Amino acid sequence: MEPAPMTAPNANPDPFSNQANVSHPVLVGYLFWILGFIGAHRFYFGKPLTGILWLLTGGIFLIGWIVDAFFIPTMAEQANQRYPNGHIDYTVTWVLLTFLGLFGIHRFYMGKIVTGVIYLLSGGLFGIGYAYDVCTLNEQVEELNRFG
C-alpha cells in the first residue's frame, strides 16, 4: 500500500471547512448571501463598493444576486488571502455587527470600548457609524489583528 501523496497546505481546501487559516468561511458567505439582495455577502467578503451597488439596486435587480451564488467560493478564497486570521475573528465580528451593531457590541468585541459606549448611547452614532463599520469592518479587524 502506497502512502497518500503529500500536498501543500491549502492546495485544495474544502470550501466548507473551518480550517485555522480560513478567515471568511464559504458557508458563512452563503448565509450572508441569503441577505445578498442588500449586499451583505459582498460587504462580508471585503467588497464594499459592490456591496453598496447591491444595496442600492436590490442585487442588480436580483439577477446579480443569483449569479453571486456561484461566485461565493471565489470571493471567500480572495478574502481568505487578503485578510489573515488573528485574535479577533472576522465572522464573529460580522455577526455582532449585523445583529447588534447599532448597540456597538462588535466594537466592544474588538476592544474599542470608548466607541462601543458611544454607539450604545447613540444607536451607532445615529446609523452613520454603523454604515461606516459595514464598509470598513474587515480593514478594522485586519489592523487590530496585525498590531494588537
3D structure, described in words:
This protein has 148 residues and is mainly alpha-helical. The chain folds into two domains: 24-82, no CATH class; 86-148, no CATH class. Helix content is 66%, strand content 0%. The protein has helices spanning 26-33, 40-44, 48-61, 63-82, 90-100, 105-109, 113-126, 128-147. Helix 3 runs antiparallel to helix 4 (63-82) and helix 5 (90-100) packs antiparallel against helix 8. The longest helix is centred in the middle third of the chain and has 20 residues, at 63-82. The radius of gyration is 17 Å and the shape is globular. It is found in: Membrane. One of its GO terms (cellular component) is membrane. Keywords: Membrane, Transmembrane, Transmembrane helix. Residues 26-70, 90-134 form the TM2 domain.
Topology:
Layout: H1 26-33, H2 40-44, H3 48-61, H4 63-82, H5 90-100, H6 105-109, H7 113-126, H8 128-147
Transmembrane segments: 22-40, 52-76, 88-106, 113-132
Membrane topology: Multi-pass membrane protein
Domain TM2: 26-70, 90-134
